[in-house]
Specification:
single chain; about 500 residues; Aldehyde Dehydrogenase, Chain A, domain 2; 2 domains; 7-stranded mixed β-sheet
Length: about 500
Amino acid sequence: MNTSTIQQLNLLINGKIVSAKEGKYFDSINPSIGETFAQVADATLKDMQAAIASSRKSFEQGPWRAMTPSERGIYLKKIAKAIREQAKELADLETLDIGKTLKQSTFIDVPTCADTFDYFSNISEPFESKTCSIELPSPVKSVVEREPMGVVGCIIPWNYPLIMAAWKIAPALMAGNSVILKPSPLGCVSIMKLAQIIQSCDLPAGVLNVIPSSSHDVSAALVKSLDVDMISFTGGNETGQEVMRLAADTTKKLTLELGGKSPNIVFADCDLDSAIGGTMSAIFMNQGQMCTAGSRLLLEDQIYDEFMGKLIEKTKNLKVGNADNYETSFGPLISQEHRDKNLAFIEQGKKDGAKLVCGGKIPEGDEYKNGFYFEPAIFEDVDNAMTIAQEEVFGPVLSVMKFSGTEEAIRIANDTPYGLASTLWTKDLDKANDVAKQLQCGTVWINTYGGFYNEAPFGGYKQSGFGRELGIEGLLEYTQIKHVCTDATPEGKPLVASWF
């Protein structure tokens, strides 16, 4: 990939690719080499206000919500096709922008993005009117209808830009809403390319607006606006709590997918090699920058030493390097600031008494000189009360704890304010299903990790948020229910007598 030419990417407002009103751009840094490779238009409050006005007009006056689901689905299918046609450029940009390995961008993120648009394009049944029976002394015709929420603001993080955008845009559009997408300035270059792709698919003007900005005030304006009916947010807990506060004045609907501190429970009767491979995927995929990262490894005491010996050996053999090299299995972290945050957690873990047995430092060598590289880290002797076991690191830092018996494993697993996901490994599926029922989280993976399916809902318990992405449940989040009740008594015999 050629990074010598700095390209500029602009906003999508009212169906047109336009520059920001003040003409400013922010830099996008390639974390593999620490250099600017693109610039993105930095939206102002006026740009956001224009996007909101465009979305409001498109929803109130445009043809989108009046279309049948099948008609809207045609557009989503067209978007999916266009994504696949430009898959290589999207994958390259995602890798350059956030340091995601090119293998992952190519074979996971871009295909998943396209598949999500395809999946939601085919769902129409929830939008069909349903007649329901109500037992009353006199007959009525009672119909329940699902309608779009209106204007939906979607705010996404930097770690999975294309996937997160698709998870929100596709169901929101399919439900008939107008959408304003606000991506993170740390990871939005692939999103701005996606905006161009969607714009080329001839959606009615204003149905989708894409507004990147480095300003907190611009994001806040989206959440606070009276003309925005719903906010779908994915990100950190502190920001999610602020979104709740800002949205309170307009009492708008929210869905929040927040942080996690997911337990990865390995029982002694597991398939050892599968559990080790799954454990590494759970914490080191995407350099651990995942809300579902299995950052707490709970190992049953009988297999502890054997498991840890193999895990540490495999971790030390991970190929750390430039994300655009197909040989790389572990790329850089997103930024210098984020690497510093991970290093601070390493120092905190050691201070609290945990034993660092692998990584946790900046690798040496000229190839790592300018990028934001960090060796994947493993701590032993971790107490679940420690900072590294309770706070979301959002990086490749694994906290290992020993347990004896199922009851202790469940207690440790649930001892966290989060409840997003968990993983467990055992050949005893009866035990696995019993444990799964007792885990306080929205997703449980058994003898696997990270299986996300468009057909299956995803979301959290406790402080990991509320609402669901994906599946019929995720689609219905972008709708509201209307009950229409009609007097069906014979003429001259009113259902409700006049009081006056």
